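Input:
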Amino acid sequence: MQFSTIEELVQLAEAQGQAIADIMIEEEALATGVPKEKIISKMFQHLDTMEKAVQRGLTEEIRSRSGLTGGDARKLEGYLRQGSTLSGQRVLQAVSRAIATNEVNAAMGTIVATPTAGASGVIPGCLFGLAGELGVDRDVMVRFLFTSGAIGYVIANRSFISGAAGGCQAEVGSASAMAAGAIVEMAGGTPRQSAHAVAIALKNTLGLVCDPVAGLVEVPCVMRNAMGASNAIVSADLALAGIESIIPADEVIGAMYRVGQAMPGTLKETALGGLAATPTGERHRQRLFGSSHERAEEKGGIQDE
Amino acid sequence: MKYRSVFDIIGPVMIGPSSSHTAGAARIGRMARRLFGRVPHKAQIEFCGSFAKTYQGHGTDVAIVGGLMGFDTHDPRIKDALKISEDIGLAISITTVDLPEEHPNTAWIRLEDEAGAMRVKGISVGGGKIAMLEADEFQMNLSGDAWTAFVFHKDQFGLIASVASVLADRRINIARMEMSRKAKGQEALLIIETDEEISASAGSQIAGIADVAHVRILPPL
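Output:
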């Protein structure tokens, strides 16, 4: 790829007078040798898979095997239809679709990792929550995925996208930043504004730990996806209002990497700290998996840190 | 660059709940099976780090076993992989080990049938991407994302040049290459990842080179 930073991505787009989505499609074709039409049609398939997951989460009785998650997307849809909300239609539609996708994921349904499965609700949530409102067609929706992919490509190569490596900031944080930049483009903003939205969204999730209860991608992951979607929309609005991030996106990505490096192992998807280690979190773990000798040893390990 | 395509970021399509612990595990299992080259009768799986701590919750166990049976990340049979493995007579054992120096998502897999056994090591690096780091005591760093030729040979000068010229004649571009050997003049493994498909005929031409013991060609995962 001809870009490895957000700044290079923005400059490429500005120099060629194109959107970030066009740059991504162009660069993908150059880097892989696959014709553009094939690349675009593969993304259309991903869009269809995402839509099915959203629909399942909104219409079916989804319940994970553990019983910890499921049904909240429908609950929120019902609340939304009743009319009076605080956050408003657009934000909550995105949030309910983010929850829907992540509930399907937790129930071992089929989803598209964006960039990971744990964070798979944020991008389709924002996309399907806003597309109807903004009156965009399927082509524009696919372009949204290329734009978010370009941003994620930079983050993944310069920092990390997995909770085990960098905490939840690397998962939901990255997804939220990817969505924020893509929303700006879908709403008619400039590539520079997309970069500010990326920076703002990622700043807001810096330091977020990965602490899944019982080691399951359910609590708090589903609600973190809800937060990631709303953070993305608000960050996009801020950027569209002309607000600029003092710290540029690439430096925020660098900061995320260093924060992740400094994070203790107990807070990186080991289910040994944070919410996983609360009395209630621990009770759920015992209910689901029982207690074992190995666990007792691990607890000794936490106290040592 | 660890991630080379937009579809590494928007993708893969997969059965939840975790791209590193479910999809990545399925891909490690699938790659292990391909490296072994046959249907194993027995698989001993050892999980380290985050894999060890959370494998039950993430379905890492069913995913890796599904992968060993050749299932892709989006194959709904993954959910029932342990049951299916029982039905087809693939014996599975799963243990955890504490090796803090290893990558947080590491799996060791020992595969076995009457003809032999092979031990492989794979790590899941995030978003469904993996790296195979060891197979049969050969060190490697294999993503499984490209066409790959495994050239088993006796460590000898000129070997790389001979193999490269077969590929060059067929206009197959080498993207990455690595060499691993057990000792000087001993068994060695040349791994070549290419941009283009490596045909079976290219494989057999390479196999005909002096000192080459055998060649395996694998398509992208």
